[in-house]
Structures are given as C-alpha cells and as structure tokens.
Amino acid sequence: MTIHKAVIPAAGLGTRFLPATKSTPKEMLPVVDKPAIQYVVEEACAAGLDDVLLITGRSKRTLADHFDAVPELEAALEAKGDLERLAKVRESTELAHVHFVRQGQPKGLGHAVLQAKHHVGSETFAVLLGDDLIDERDVLLTTMIEVAERTGGSVIALLEVPPEQISLYGCAAVEPFEGAADDDEVRVTALVEKPAADEAPSNLAIIGRYVLNPAVFDVLESTEPGRGGEIQLTDALATLAGMPAEQGGGVYGVVFRGRRYDTGDRLDYLKAVVRIAVDRPDLGPDFRSWLSEFVPSLDGQD
After folding, report:
1. 1-138 falls under which CATH superfamily?
2. Nearest-5° angle of CA 41, CA 84, CA 134?
3. Hey, where are the domains in the chain?
4. Quick one: CATH architecture of 140-257?
5. I need a labelling partner for 282 at 20 to 30 A (CA). Which of 1, 142, 181, 188 fits?
6. What are the backbone dihedrals phi and psi of residue 109, each rounded to the nearest 5 degrees, phi first?
7. C-alpha span between 265 and 259 (Å, rounded)
8. What is the pLDDT of residues 1-55, one digit of tens each?
9. Mean pLDDT computed over every residue of the chain
10. Which segments constitute the Nucleotidyl transferase domain (predicted)?
11. What share of the chain in percent tops pLDDT 70?
12. Which residues of 47-64 are buried (b: 16+ CB within 10 A; e: fewer)?
C-alpha cells in the first residue's frame, strides 16, 4: 500500500470568526505569518502525501489563489533582490499538486469527504481538518499511515481530554490489538459523536486527522444524517469498525501526546498564535521577553 493522497475539507462558513470571515475564508486567517491552511498542507507533504484535494465552497477562491503562482509579485521581488520573501511566496506553490472541488451544500463532514470519491478512487487516503494544527516537531500522520499500511484498516487520531470535555468531541471505545507497536496504538470498537460525559465510553476524543480505507465512500453513501441533521464521518467510521477486514472494515486509533494547536474558536486561535510565535527562532526571543514584562502587568486589572 502506498498512500499519497490527502483530502482537506475547507467548505465551512467560519461563522465563529465573523466579521473577519465575511469575505475571507477562515482557513486563510493568519497564524503568525502563514494562513492556517498552509500549515495543514505542509503537514501532509511532510508525511509523504504529494496529492492534495481541498473541498471548498462558495467564496473560497482565495484558497486556490494562495496555492497558485503570482508572476507579477514574484517578478517585483526578484527585481528588488528580495530573495527571502520571494522564496516564501513560492513556498506554497511548490508544496504539492493541489486540486479543488466544491462541496455545494454544507451537509456535514461525512458529506464533504464523500466529494473526494472520484479523485481518490480505490486508494487509501488521509483527511486533515484545518482546525487542528499539529506541531511539525511531533509525529502523528506518519505513524497513522504506518498503522494503516500494517493493518489495512482506517486509522483515527485520538487525544485524551478531561472527562467533562468529551461531549465536545467524537469519542472512541478502544482495546489493545495484536501487532500494535506500543500502547498508544489501539483498535476502535465503537464510536459516539459528542456523548454526554456520563455516557462516554472513554475520555479519548477524535481529533482532526484520519487515514481512511476507500470502503468509507460506500458507507458514507448509505449513512443517514445524524447529529445536527448532517452526515457525520463518525457514524460512517462506527459502521466500518464493525465490518470485516476483507470488506475494508476495521478502525484503529493512534493516541497523540504531542503539541496540538486548536484554531477552531477565537480564544483558542489566539492561544495557538502565541504558542507558535514563542517557539519561532526569528520571533520567539523578543516575543517571550515582551510577554514576560506584559503578563505580570495584568495582575490587578479588571
């Protein structure tokens, strides 16, 4: 098995970031000095995925523009001898083969993934959600691909969360399996979308990284709308977990213990910007110095 295709759903309206997202896709909001979507594509490429399909919607044209060449800007930078900025401009263009398809109507994550069927075909593929940024120093997607190649099944990323927060996520019931490389590789026996805390089978939340057997497409086509009236990818994965391996079934999980930046709401987005900025070699030293002076000054303020 050789996995080289990634699918990135990016058709959401970004209503939590209005009015900034009235005319700018939320995926293009900057995280320090790069749009969030570029971090996600870079992660896919670092894991060896060189074919990227973005599932977009209306008013998302700037996503395509970002991954396209800009001859006028490049020529101007080159004429000024500004080779450093020229390299940054060209970086997104040269990352991967990036394709686009429109979802049409926002009917849920499962429906968005289903739009990739004709592009992906019969290949196992990765799905990366733009709300979760994984630190480039921590390995996740590469491990998930290895598990998928070893087992032939689908693989989801899991994160331990406080029990009182599990109702915000899809939740997995898991067990050990023979052939796992370590205790952080598990077999998924059941999945529940946003369960009540007292009904959750574990505190393992599904986060936005998946490696999916193409059998998921047939399952999605017959999956009825679930929570919120949308076609839920979690529901399709729950079906796959109970299917035999020879039919593309079986779902496994990788428990992630590295650095994850949540850009899904305004407060967590701000936290993500700060956490990434303080680790940047070019910005971090001065930014940390300023923070060390600024944060104590907040004591006693209303």
Report:
1. Spore Coat Polysaccharide Biosynthesis Protein SpsA; Chain A (3.90.550.10)
2. 25
3. 1-138, 140-257
4. Alpha-Beta Complex (3.90)
5. 142
6. -65, -40
7. 17
8. 689 999 999 988 888 999 999 888 999 999 999 999 999 999 999 999 999 999 9
9. 91
10. 5-274
11. 99
12. bebebbbbbbbeebeebe
15: exposed, middle or buried (Cβ count in 10 Å: 0-12, 13-18, 19+): exposed
Q: Which tokens in the block code for residue 295?
A: 């944060």
What is the dihedral sign for C-alpha 114, 120, 122, 126?
negative
* Tokens 């490389």 belong to residue: 181
pTM: 0.92
Strand duo 51-56 + 34-35: pairing: unpaired
Q: How far is it, in rounded angstroms, from Cα 258 to Cα 240?
A: 27
- Cross-strand partners of 158: 206, 255
Which residues touch 130 (CB under 8 Å, ≥6 apart)?
Answer: 8, 9, 10, 26, 27, 36, 37, 40, 208, 263
